[in-house]
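Inverse folding, one chain.
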């Protein structure tokens, strides 16, 4: 307790002589200095307590406007955060017990003990009140915080969990307390993960990071977890406090942002940014495993006429339908992207030569040529497809895009509605 600057005391005493004597005795006693504010009625005390704060209230139970334990109850109700020491002439065990039950830290009888005894009782009362206040605030935070909390002993057995823990996990205190909370493990992490976690806890006293948990109903969810070692005054491990929050919403938000950043908003296909990453990855994999891959560059023939004559709404509907047809015409491992306008690309990460690649391209030409629904009539829509092979036509992203683009223009010059492979001068397949 920091008392080097003294303690402030509100003395509530209606007898002036008693008030002067109490102050004199406490001023003469050794130890921490006390500064006094003296009032003689309950009303005066309540008025001051509404505006000011004190370290301790020295209270007589018999006042002109209030008598008995009701005086204490009123004061305690107004300021439960301040230590109250009753100093009264009422010498009854029943009243003394009632006073302690109603919030008094101590009960002293006037005329019993010297100033040193009374001062010591006041100092102890202040210290107990402060300790109790810290515990009350900590308990309130533990109970009401939205973050899940679990306290364990040094052996890792659960001692307490809060309400937020139960809301997130579904497990109650009866389910968890006294057990090692292995039932919270999702089965996602390898044993080495937990070995490293406990190793860091022993070394640094804390661990923090993302971890997967399992709720009582079997749901697996991501959580952000922090574990701190609780040590005693001698530095020994007394237990652990785990604080965690379900970050499913945050993960979804992050995924939504990533999807928005990498997805074409009109068609739902990968956009140019994601396409660049996917093509780079395909080139790396093809080189590493010595296999062939292909890039198909698709441009719609006659789309501008549809857009100009039918309007952008119909044009957008056509593009969305083309995206559906492309996606359903290739393997799940193949990638489809829209670069902008009516330009699409397909990445085939694993092919077996030109014949298999040509078969996929011809299928796409056939799908695009099919009639559209009446509301997005596009009977004259076809596609020109240029193909670049990996690694034959290049092993860099820019080189492959240029090669496939050049082959696509050769397909257009050849009458459209066809495919062409790149061969240095965009020769026909």
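Residues assigned per position:
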């Amino acid at each position: 307790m920091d008392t080097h600057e003294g303690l402030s005391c509100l003395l509530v005493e209606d007898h002036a002589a008693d008030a002067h004597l109490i102050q004199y005795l406490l001023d003469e006693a050794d130890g921490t200095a006390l500064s006094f504010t003296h009032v003689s009625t309950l009303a005066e005390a309540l008025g001051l307590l509404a505006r000011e704060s004190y370290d301790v209230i020295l209270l007589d139970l018999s006042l002109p406007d209030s008598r008995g334990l009701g005086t204490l109850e009123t004061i305690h109700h107004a300021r439960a955060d301040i230590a109250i020491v009753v100093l009264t002439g009422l010498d009854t065990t029943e009243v003394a017990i009632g006073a302690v039950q109603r919030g008094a830290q101590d009960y002293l009888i006037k005329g019993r003990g010297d100033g040193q005894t009374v001062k010591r009782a006041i100092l102890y009362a202040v210290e107990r009140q402060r300790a109790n206040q810290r515990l009350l605030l900590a308990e309130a935070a533990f109970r009401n915080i939205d973050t899940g909390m679990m306290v364990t002993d040094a052996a890792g057995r659960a001692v307490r969990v809060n309400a937020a823990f139960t809301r997130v996990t579904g497990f109650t205190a009866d389910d968890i307390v006294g057990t090692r909370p292995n039932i919270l493990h999702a089965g996602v992490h390898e044993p080495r993960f937990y070995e490293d976690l406990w190793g860091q806890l022993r070394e640094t006293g804390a661990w923090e990071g993302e971890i997967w948990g399992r709720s009582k109903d079997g749901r697996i969810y991501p959580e952000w977890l922090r574990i701190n070692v609780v040590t005693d005054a001698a530095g020994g491990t007394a237990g652990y406090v785990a604080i965690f929050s379900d970050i499913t919403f945050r993960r979804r938000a992050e995924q939504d942002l990533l999807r928005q950043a990498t997805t074409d908003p009109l068609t739902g296909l990968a956009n140019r940014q994601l396409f660049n990453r996917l093509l780079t990855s395909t080139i790396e994999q093809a080189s590493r495993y010595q296999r062939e891959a292909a890039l198909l560059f698709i441009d719609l023939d006659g789309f501008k006429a549809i857009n100009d004559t039918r309007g952008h709404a119909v044009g957008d509907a056509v593009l969305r339908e083309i995206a559906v047809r492309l996606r359903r015409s290739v393997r799940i491992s193949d990638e489809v992207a829209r670069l902008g306008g009516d330009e699409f690309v397909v990445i085939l990460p694993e092919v077996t030569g030109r014949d298999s690649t040509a078969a996929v391209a011809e299928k796409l030409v056939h799908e695009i040529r099919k009639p559209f629904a009446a509301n997005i009539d596009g009977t004259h829509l076809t596609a020109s497809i240029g193909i670049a092979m990996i690694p034959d036509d290049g092993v860099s992203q820019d080189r492959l895009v240029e090669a496939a683009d050049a082959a696509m223009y050769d397909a257009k010059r050849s009458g459209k509605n066809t495919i062409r492979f790149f061969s240095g001068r965009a020769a026909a397949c």
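DSSP finds 14 helices and 15 strands in the chain. The two ends are 90 Å apart (CA to CA).
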